[in-house]
Amino acid sequence: MSVMTMTTGNRTRVVSKGRMIGMGVTFVILGLLIFAFFLPGTTVAQKTEFGLNTFTRVEVISLPPLILPTQMAIIAAGLICLGLGAYQLVRGFGRATEVMLGLVVLMFVIAFLTWAARDNAFNLTGILKTTLLLATPIALGGFSGVLSERAGVVNIAIEGMMLSSAFMSTLVGSVTGNLYLGLLGGISIGVLMAALHGLLSVKYKVDQIISGVVINILAVGLTSYLASRFLEKYQELNNPGTFQPIAIPLLSRIPIIGPVLFENNLIVYLLFGLMFAIHFMLFYTRWGLRTRAVGEHPKAADTLGINVFNMRYINVLLSGAVAGVGGAYFTIGSVGRFDEVMTAGKGYIGLAAMIFGKWTPFGAFGASLIFGFADSLQTKLQILNVPIPSEFLLMAPYLATIIAVAGVIGRATPPAADGIPYEK
Amino acid sequence: MAGSLGEALLLPLLAIITALIVGAIFIALTDPVVLAALGNFFNAPLAAVAAIGNSVVTAYVSLFRSSFGDPVRMVNALVSGDPNRLRLAFWPLSESLVASTPYIFAGLAVAFGFRCGLFNIGAEGQLFIGAICAVWIGYSIGLPWIFHLPLALLGAMVGAGLWGAVPGFLKAKTGAHEVITTIMMNYMAYRLADWLLHGPMMRPGYNPISPDILPSAYLPKFFADPIRFHAGFFLALFMAWVVYWLLFKSTLGFEIRTVGANPSAAKYAGMNITKNFVLAMGISGALAGMAGANEVLGLNHNLASAFSSGYGFDSIALALLGKSHPAGVVLAALLFGFLRSGATGMQSYAGIPIDIISIIQALVIIFVAAPAIVRSIYRIRIRREAGGEVFTRGWGG
Question: Which three-class secondary structure state does DSSP give residue A390?
Fold first, then answer.
């Protein structure tokens, strides 16, 4: 297999010919699928209406709905996929390949929506908004994973950390009547769980996956036990209220983007803040360089005087704090009450988003949007009466994760020392 | 050998005891009566101590009574010889064995994967697939008992085995980590079951429940109601023997263990890594599938969308506690089965939420996985570090 090496930014990346062709074939297949599945059954006269207003209070400019001729739009989307696939096969997009993959997937989704909502109306801005909200805990889980795995500690305990935080933020929020203290309580319990993970996996060198599984079981047990012992009896302990959306002046007035991005509650803004902060810290600070060194080659880092154990502890604790923010979203960030096992696997999906996003904050956020989109779409599709069982649609992100992990589209390479306890 | 056996049993036993003690402290500290008494500690210190003792004793006595049964009642029933009284007196014991059965299957499944260096978190999903296959064969085909029951079991094994083999194949061919792929496949299995129970497999009516299976596919029961004890328990013990034989007496087992201990050495010795990964995960999946089949063929006789067991996740703890040895897994499964059915009694008699069991389980795993903690508590020195399994680490394989 011939290999060409290219330098992107600060590191060297290898793009193999086989992967280039694999991508090209994927583009073409998606294009052909559009023609095979969405084109039949549409007529020239059909129209698809996309609503662009969310009807929230900040919206002053009311946009007319976007009306597309169904058949034309589907053909156009299919042709774009085929064209991009052909170019990829003949010339290759090189480093732009991933962007192009995103574009092709977008075209596929557009074709799908246009087909699903033919002769009907579909609120586009509304679905973008719910996508972001559903993606928030997943993305925060992903960031939590990025922090610990970049330092070489596999963290499948995110689920448990988020669950305990969801519980604790409700409890503290209800008792003190202060949501900020509730959030702080959630973060603290996340850090505490992370400390246990660090102790077991860094100090006692327990297999990191076992340690993670234990924390998840422990979190389910503790929260469910305490919830049925106290929260069910004393309802006032489970009534913290929720963070209200804050509209950012001016920015929230922008059509479409405004209501989606700039009229959210504190935790969603924290998500964006953390995304940029973690990216900056990982790639542009001394701490980040050390973190990555410890995750890639702890021995070398140790030789240069970096305290591997300390770096790992710090990162695992930070990871717990971020998972704590994500856990708080489930209760004081959205529904305002705790229910048993309410995280329902979102922590695991956050981990998948991290892998999908190649251990980067932006990547993890992008991947979580895909999961959030599939989630929000399934409720909408039931309304539209699409002949696809919603269960299959819900399966799609999991399947996509397996494909991503298997490296069929874009190999995901973890930090080299990820999961290996360091022995001095 | 007696010394090494004692050593092998000492740490798990201490781990269980320590977990039960920590559990007791936790129960006492979350008991409203105890909390009230503690608030009044300086006025009536003895009352507070009594409240703590009372709380813990009530909890563990009811745990014992609902897992083993009330000894007095059992003796009286034996003396009277009245079958009805016998059934009622031995009902808790039977329920514990019924709860242990799926644990044995699922624990064996995870242990088998561990032996090949594979971490099968997918037992829960494979259990679902097994249950789906068993129930489908159970209600859709009419056959004599002698063919129907084996066919339903075989169907569950094949279906869940194929489902389980996929992560093994992906791991061998692409390096995709089985932890992530099996977690993802768990969710896919839930969705698949959801879809089937709301669509193709839904019984007439509005409830997402499959039709009842035909009596010819039932795992036979030995006693009249309310005793639910059925042949699944003996099947599970038989499978434990089969797994023991496979792992330690067959060439396949030798290869699987070699691959698990050191994949590079196995490859160098000419062993086919892909074949062993696929087989190990396939067999693991088949065993987990039998846990699902056991539940639908032996107990429920149908599949409901609320069918969620948690057996698949608990089985990770079992395999660790049993040191991935079939005999150890059976013992651990009995322990968990008795705890689980005892916890139901704790909930109804002592008002302690059933989730205390998850806490105790988590503590047991912590103490088993980090023996250093237990050793430092009891100040014991062990000659040799008890050998754990070496898992393939990291996500990339």
Answer: helix
DSSP state of A118: B
Shortest distance between the Cα of B25 and any Cα of chain A, in A, equals 13
pLDDT digits (tens, 9 = 90+) for A125-178: 888 888 999 999 999 999 999 999 999 998 889 999 999 999 999 999 999 989
Provide the β-strand partners of residue A12. A7
Burial A349-363 (b: 16+ CB within 10 A, else e): bbbbbbbbbbbbbeb
Using one digit for the tens of pLDDT, what is the confidence trace for B168-180?
Answer: 999 888 878 888 8
Cβ neighbours of residue B49 closer than 8 Å, sequence gap 6 or more: none
The Cα-based distances of A209 to A377, B234, B268, B367 in angstroms read 33, 33, 28, 15
Q: Is the peptide bond before B102 cis (omega within 30 degrees of 0)?
A: no
A211 touches B388 (CB < 8 A): no
| Rounded Cα gap, residues B184 and B388, in angstroms | 27
- ipTM comes to 0.83
For the residues of B255-309, what is the DSSP string, one character each? HHHHHHH-HHHHHHTT--HHHHHHHHHHHHHHHHHHHHHHHIIIIISS-BTT---
Q: Would the CB atoms of A406 and B359 count as touching at under 8 Å?
A: no
Q: Degrees (nearest 5) of the Cα angle A31, A34, A39?
A: 135
- Over its C-alpha atoms, chain A yields an Rg (Å, rounded) of 23
Contacts of A213 in chain B (CB under 8 A): 121, 313, 316, 365
The pTM of this model reads: 0.86
